[in-house]
Amino acid sequence: MSRTPGDLVLSVRDLVVRFERPDGGSVTVLDRVTFDVVRGETLVIMGGSGCGKSTLLNCLIGEIEPAAGQIIYRFPDLGTIDFIRADGATRDRLRKRFGILFQSGALFSSMTVAENVALPLLEHSHVDREIIDIVVAMKLQQVHMLEHRDKRPAQLSGGQKKRAGLARATALDPEILYYDEPSAGLDPVTSCAIDQLIIDLSRKLHVTSVVVTHEMDSAFRIADRMVMLEKGRILRIGTRQEFDALRLADPRALNTAEDRLIHQFLNGAPQGPLTDADGTSLYEKLLVGG
Fold it and tell me: Helix (H, G, I), strand (E, B), or coil: what is residue 27?
């Protein structure tokens, strides 16, 4: 389905990231990654450990500088901006449009929950303290954490830390919410509750969500579209329904190595291309090397 630029809030084009090795060489972590994010959707970026998911997320928020490519943001009042080539002041303006839920919650241990949520407002807005207190209460209420506002992070469970982190991520009413493994370390019930929060906030706040995860139950609950990464390359981009059909398919009926590999990952099967390749040689020959 074709989309006009007005539908897109983010376009990533031919993104390359390389890390230097101690021997003087380099390893390519992201290799010509290209995809679009549609305004208002929830896009899940998935893949196994070490596939490049977190590196990609860090590029999108400006924590890692790519070796090549473009990261293009589109906001009605700011126009079209290539994040990689933007100056510092422009990057700062763009970052105020992001909300980020880190894997651990990343709360400041010396602050209460309310103080953590208030921090972005104190640093990046000019409203009165009374208004900030009202906003903090609203954000905590959205994630069902208002009764815990005076607690410190050490007094919270893992799920409560994620909720508090999500309240802080929405403090400035961002247009894009980034999630780094939101279900990591949580029991199934708490994980499902966090997923429901992601869905509810996306609908109520009309934000675009980009979720990095390898938790398949979570991915299929929240995604509109899905991107699968492996070895730093995109194997497949499709709707949740398309990936679900592949997940439920009979593996004996799959004709390509790529389909069999994705099927194995989606189902967590112990046998298949991911494990039968014995390292990466067969896999790279079939999929990366073409």
Answer: strand
**3-class SS of residue 36:** strand
Tokens representing 165 are: 């982190």
Distance CA(271)–CA(256), nearest Å, equals: 16
Handedness of CA 174, 175, 178, 182 (dihedral sign): positive
Instruction: Answer whether 92's CB lies under 8 Å from 268's CB.
Output: no
Closest CA to 73 of 64, 65, 63, 83: 83
Exposed/middle/buried for 137, CB within 10 Å: 0-12, 13-18, 19+? middle
pTM exceeds 0.90, yes or no: no
The pLDDT score that the predictor gives to residue 277 is: 54
CB 90 within 8 A of CB 41: no
Identify the residue with better confidence: 119 or 105.
119
Separation in Å, CA 262 to CA 88, 173, 200, 232, 249: 39, 36, 29, 15, 11
Edge-to-edge strands, sheet with 98-101: 98-101, 176-180, 208-213, 42-46, 225-230, 233-239
What is the CA angle 21-22-26, rounded to 5?
A: 20
What letter represents residue 23's amino acid? D
